[in-house]
Amino acid sequence: MAHTQDILGQLPLLQSYTHAILCFQLASNASPPMDLEPAVQRLLTLFPILAGQVIKTGASPTSSGAYQVVPYPVRPSPLIRYVDHTSDPQVPSYNSLRTAHFPFHQMPSTLFSPPHPVFPIPYPDTAPAPVLALQANLLHGGFLLTLAAQHNIIDASGIFQIASLLARLTRGELIPQAEITEGNLDRRNLIPLLEDHQPLRHDYREYLPSCMPTKIPPNLTALFPTFQWAYFHLSRRAVEAIYAETTTGPPPSSSSQHTPVKITPNDALTAFIWQRLTLTRLHHSPSPLSATSSVSKISRAMDLRRTLHLTPAYLGHMIRTVTLRLPLGEITALPLATLAARLREQVAELRTMEAVRDYATFLARQPDKSKIAYSGGEFHPATDFSCSSIAHVDFERLSLGDGARCEGGRRPGGGVLPGVCYIGPAGDWYDSGGAEGSRQKGIEVLMCLDGWEMEGLREDERWREWTIEIAIIGSGLIGTLLALGLLNIPASTKATSTTLHIKIYEQSSTPHELGAGIGFTTCARKCMSLMDPRIADCVARVATLNGEPEASTPDYCMRFVDGFRTYTGGDCWGMTAKNEDEGGNGVDIRGVGSDRIKDQYEHSKEYEDGGSDEEEGRIHISGKVYKLYAGPRGFEGCHRGQFLEEVMKLMPDGVVECSKRVEGYELLPSGRIQLSFCDGGRVECDLVLACDGIKSLLRNRLFPQHQPQYTHQFAFRGLVPMSTAISKLGRYRALRQHMHCGPRAHVLHFPVAKQQLMNVVAFVQDASDWTHPGMTAPAKKSEVVDAFKEWGPFVRAVIDLLPEQLDKWAVFDTFDSPVPKYAEGRVALVGDAAHASSPHHGAGAGMGVEDALALVTALQKARDDVDRGVEVSGALEAAVKAYSRVRYDRSQWLVRSSREVGWTYEWMNEDIGANMDRAFADIKERSHRVWYFDVEAMVAEVERQYRWFLWN
């Protein structure tokens, strides 16, 4: 095997092993590949060099000797080492490692690799040194196949060629003769050296530093205790963006010849990493560095196969390093394209046949090669940087014949190697399981850096700038809560995670919320807490509960009452209506009470003010009061404006941009969305979420045939000082929510502003069309007094409390013309923009809060998948489709039920009429469907539907 000697592999610094771990996931019913031995036997027969051992001959005080491959006297058996870790509780399962993305610290070479040190740690001269060693590690759910190749004989490209050969042999494929021939080439004369009389054309003095250790110390970790390894993931989108930055515009020129150079993606990535790391060092180094006098040297591993007209089938060591030195300030100031061009220039200069022959001759003429610095001179971890790349490896081609698919690769954990970086393809663990050929996992960068360098890079904006830009239209309640929920999505633990950049565009000059009172159930508050617990805290700060302000047992009930008729009789559970319904028929409700249902009712005489309700001037409710328990903390009411003001305090600066009325949008050829504004401005984004309410412009653009319709109902609204209300109605009734039902109208009142005000809303049917340009119109108290003049005394007393000047609010909804879906492409409708309902369930805002949580859930999944390499547009479209599918039926039911329960309040339901027992049963059933909603099940269903849309 004398012909196996490699001139480029003769450096004693390489007396170590290159390791590669291949990761294979197994189906639950699959067996691990225990029979790799025949394929390995066939491999060693085809390529005898792989069956040999490495020896060093001719070493002397003045010569480092030569590395050669010789046959083993007796070939080791078995050829592959099997280690079963399934019974070791300290070893994680395959899926646990996969979920964690196979972190470096959980992949120790002592556990998962053959017993040969990982480069650059040398092995002793006396130790057996097989050219190739293999170990199969069996785990629960998968296995790891580790290949270790002696580094003087085989470089990184060679070890992945061996993996490819082995995989094909397990699949029963024939290896082409050309590959066999090239893998067994005589290595001695591949590079023709210069004649003895020919001088070297390059200056190699930097390769012979005055102080050069003969071998790497066996424990670098002890010398550099604060250094650590970590993986940084760059999504495909990030890689494309970095490369585009170096290739757009005029071609960058060589610094010396001013000729264009062709930058490769590898050049762009290396330049980007070097530049960001240098900037981190300048800003964060514990020992101050100078931008002008401090210099950084980059060393890149360059594969010379192409220069020598070889292919990857050549198994030998065919690597040399390329170096470039620049001041730190210049590295950080240069455009990325220029810096990448400088790197490419160095590669082009040293990749010529002339340069390769010159370098090989320099190595051959040095008798003691232990004095040669492999990386081109002294290496200073505080400033220098070394980079190698295997980004060309296609792991899918390394799958085995028994169906075990190779998901990716890892370098086993070992000692530190300060300032070193390995670039490689990201594994399938960054992909969520799409079809073959559709994976877009991106790149992984493994770096060994000091702790402060690692933290600095993680905080670097460019490392984290790969953003999904989301435009929210409208800074009303739902738009604001949605933005806060998205902003509160936990940051990924990956150093280069995709971030969500949220921007709210509000057409008014300041964020504001129309309307007066608003209520939130336990369900809505739970959704808030899941998005951001601080939102629910805001509700608690401004909400007003039923009952006494300082009560030890708050009143969590809603109350419904016949507000039209007056009842007589001493028995509160059996009374006769005094007045008649609209048809002139007396309504007898005697005998409807029983012990079984008494806890659902109360009577004014029994409960009013603890028995002190006989004060002169007080107006009391006659008849049965139906109590409906609304869950813990009840139906918390507050003023919309106060709540919005409170939650806006949580909003970071710069998120909301006011006076930006959207005029339209278009889909750009790039796939992004361009929003245009009435002021002439334009912005691009990846996703548009329309929270612009019932008059949504985006809904009009998406579905022009589906517009909200007037329900032929309007509401008089007014706020009454609580002291005034108490003086007229009594404390008990004034401080508690009540719904007064009656023919073609109903009145609602409840405390707001921490029991300082009573909000009154009086709904009236309207046979006419709404002709006002806006949704509100001025009104006088006399109008509402006239509307309720035939009602019972308590309702008339409530109406009498209203101020003289009022507004009346038209009730519009989407009941008559619902949109067919809530998303089209990457534009989604949210809240009232999607499903505006009448207010009779008091759940329109709560339904919008549920929408917000569904979107936050889906978009967090999309963000995570973009990190794994899924295309941005596909992930976002899947997210909004999942949102639409999950939210459509429930929210459309609310629109319909809100209309129908309004009819129940107003005795317009033909099956119920004026029967308050039946009315209460209907109200209760519908209300429970609104309130007792399984939020966790919705979240799970959103995730499931997102996954379905993403891969189908």
Automatic annotation (TrEMBL):
Task: Name the keywords, alphabetized.
Answer: Acyltransferase, FAD, Flavoprotein, Oxidoreductase, Transferase
What start-end ranges are recorded for coiled-coil regions in this protein? none
Q: Which domain of life is it from?
A: Eukaryota
Q: Which residues form the Trichothecene 3-O-acetyltransferase-like N-terminal domain?
A: 17-168
Name one process (GO BP) from the record.
Answer: secondary metabolite biosynthetic process
According to the entry, every stretch annotated as the FAD-binding domain falls at 682-861
Enumerate the InterPro entries for this protein: CAT-like_dom_sf, FAD-bd, FAD/NAD-bd_sf, FAD_monoxygenase, Tri101-like_N
Please indicate if the UniProt record lists Oxidoreductase as a keyword.
Answer: yes
- GO molecular-function term, one example from the UniProt record: oxidoreductase activity
- Pfam families in the record: FAD_binding_3 (PF01494), TRI-like_N (PF22664)
User: What PANTHER family does the record point to?
Assistant: FAD-BINDING DOMAIN-CONTAINING PROTEIN-RELATED (PTHR46720:SF3), HYDROXYLASE, PUTATIVE (AFU_ORTHOLOGUE AFUA_3G01460)-RELATED (PTHR46720)
The protein's name is Uncharacterized protein
- Organism field: Aspergillus brasiliensis (strain CBS 101740 / IMI 381727 / IBT 21946)
